[in-house]
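Assemble and predict.
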Amino acid sequence: MSPPAESLAVQAQDLSLVFQTADAPVTALDRINLSIARGEFVSFIGPSGCGKTTLMRVIADLERATAGRISVNGVSPQQARQARAYGYVFQAAALYPWRNVLNNVMLPLEIIGLPAAERRARAERQLELVGLEGFERKFPWQLSGGMQQRVSIARALACEPDMLLMDEPFGALDEITRDHLNEQLLRLWERTGKTVIFVTHSISEAVFLSNRIVVMSPRPGRILELIDNDLPPGRTLDVRETPAFAAVAHRVRVALRAGHSYDG
Amino acid sequence: MTAEASAALAGPLPGGRWQAAGSRAWPVAVVVAVGLLVWYAAAVWLNAPRVIERLDGLGQPWGAPELVAAAWSMERPVMPAPHQIALDWWGSVFGNAIDSPRSLVFHAGVTLSATLLGFVFGMLLGVALAVGVVSSRVLDRGLLPWVIASQTIPILAIAPMVVVVLGSLGYPPLISKAVISMYLCFFPVTIGMVKGLRSPETLQLDLLRTYSATPSQTLRKLRLPAALPFLFASARVAIATSLVGAIVGELPTGAAAGLGARLLSGSYFGQTIQIWSALLMAALLGVTLVAAVGVLERLVGRWMGSAPAAPGRGR
Amino acid sequence: MMPRPLVMFAALLLVGGMGQPGGPSGLLALLGIGGVLLCLRAWPAPALAGIGLAALALMAWAMLLALSVPGPRGADANGLWLALGGWAIFVWCVLDRLALLQRPRPLGLLAPALLGAALLFAWEVLVVGWEVPRVLLPAPHAVGDALAARWHVLWPDFRQTAVAVLAGWAIGSGAGLAVALLADRVDFLRRGLLPLAGLAGAVPIVGIAPIMVMWFGFDWQSKAAVAAVVTFFPMLVNTLAGLAAVDTMQRDLMRTYAAGHGATLMKLRMPSALPFVFNALKINSTLALISAIVAEFFGSPIVGLGFRISAEVARMNVDVVWAAITLAALAGSAFYGLIALVERAFTFWHPSYRSS
């Protein structure tokens, strides 16, 4: 028996999204069926244009599905958004250049309407969580790309949501920084126990971070395979050298290749 | 918001360009219609005192319809009704020979000649300055700040000076008006061209360096073509400003011909309708000139093979 | 570095001018040449720039001294023109050096300051040296004298115009901002107004001045009205452009916070739009000043800068006209500069302020 909807972070049934264009309708998502439990770290992986970002945007109520059903925390995505059930991290840090780091993190708290003292306390806590205490007074352009992205993550956590939606957050960074941030993110997840949905097109990143991997096909976006990642918790970067890691990565690669066509 | 986002992703509206153009024209039409209504109402309100005086003097009973009708047909109204202006304009343009001093076309022609001459001079000066600024470090650091500062100076304050000085040196008023216009419009051209000449990416410049191209070749082959869009954008601003310069140039010495002169004589003799219809002519002239530059831009763009602007939501 | 032959040629001209009729005193000219040559050495020290400037000033003073005594003028004063030519080339050389200075920031102003001063000096020498009639073009010192002598008239003129400018600028910009915020909220209004506002840029709005005089009388109110109408449209267009220029990503972020229109406006779109708003405010400062002065050409009580200019032009009191123009120019630059300073405080974060 599948668990009741309320205990699931996300449940999608026959979810489809068709864009109307002048030439022909474009099917971005095609009958997606997916359940994500609370506390899971799930990666969406697939080639460019496969709909993984679109799927996450539907969960975030930034797009609306044209067919099928989806519930987030047991309610509609719109209600979940109004209840501020998630924090969103974009590909770029999207910080306000006219606010310093602390004020940037406090932005969502101002919108909710928390009193100033509590806003400050929470923001400082999140900055400490991502390892940026001491940088509160700096402005975004004074920070490196990796640090800006960490501020962006702290901001997403400010409202203390249950869910983190991350759209290729480390894609624009160099590999060394990305490795470092991957490890930090994993520690953060273990500490806070939030549900994380992570879009990436890096196989090793998906295998390293998540405990479930959703492999998607090129357009029209379909779920090719759901892979349970049984690597042990508490991973460090060394785990990437182990044969177990290579095995999971191999499974992902095979699934991607099966669905990938080079024409069109 | 989501629907809009989807529509943005989806591309142009179905139904093609006519539907899109219609949906763009409709709000403008509504705003214009509302504006005209407000104008007619304002005409009644502003003209009412004098109209009431006149109607009382006639001795006959009068009501709202008579008031409104009289307010919209006064000879020297405080605020003319739109149809009065339109009729006067029509009569002046089509009811007179083109070279008659009563024809607005004649006056527009006088102003137009000064505008175009000033515009051409201004463009030449602007481009020359821009090329100089980009080629010489001295001009860039020393002259460019003054060019920018020149705009904070009310150039038009110099207009009377220029007219008088050049007049006493024997130059016809056309030249002095053109000089004023030139002074007004060289600035947007200079700034726009400097931005345009500096717009090519570093890797394009590096490529030319690998060919050992001289600065002059780089200028001709890369910078000038790259600067054309900026030139046209500035040209649109420049021609409108040039028109203002030509009109203002006609004011100080009380010139007899030109739209500015017409405005001046209208204000001296209290001929409000004449003022408004001269303004209408000036507005039409300005819009036509800017549109002409736009057409020229599109022609040049097509000749140079730039991608046509994609139809879509908004601009 | 400046080409050697050019520097030599300049020195030759200056030395040649020393001996000729009307030329500058020999000792001062030689000192000047020495100072400039020293400054042209390839050391980057700003101190050398100071030496160069001092040298140029010395030579300029020598030429002015030559002019202050009655002597040959016009085509007879070969010495003066040779010297001026050599001096001009030296100015270019020193400018070339100054153009390298960027930090600290005040040093960057030396190059335009030198060019401006040089042009002013050349104006003075040419006008006095060729004995140009005053009615044609007065020398700078004559303008300065007129400014001082007629200050009791020019100051009230300035005040009158300034009131009109400030009132018109404030009202027009404020109305433009308010309507832009309204049009931003009501999309129909935006789609209707924006094309019309664009058209208004092609129309010589200054032409409504006689009508405003008729409605608001001869005093400053009519001039302020013209300035207000002229400044309304650039503010409207720029504010709408600024409000629209927000990243889609930022807008999505606001949506994930379930922020309402008001919160999104105050926290994201208005701050993003500030550079555009200030750009419009700067443009409007110039436009308001021009509009007020031109409106005064059409009719004014007996006071106002525009009125002063047109009245004194009719009387051929050219130096008063130039004095009024100078006053207007200074006021315009000061106004613009003030807004730029305020802009810097509010938009310090914009990439254009950071050295790339």
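Chain A has eight helices and nine strands.
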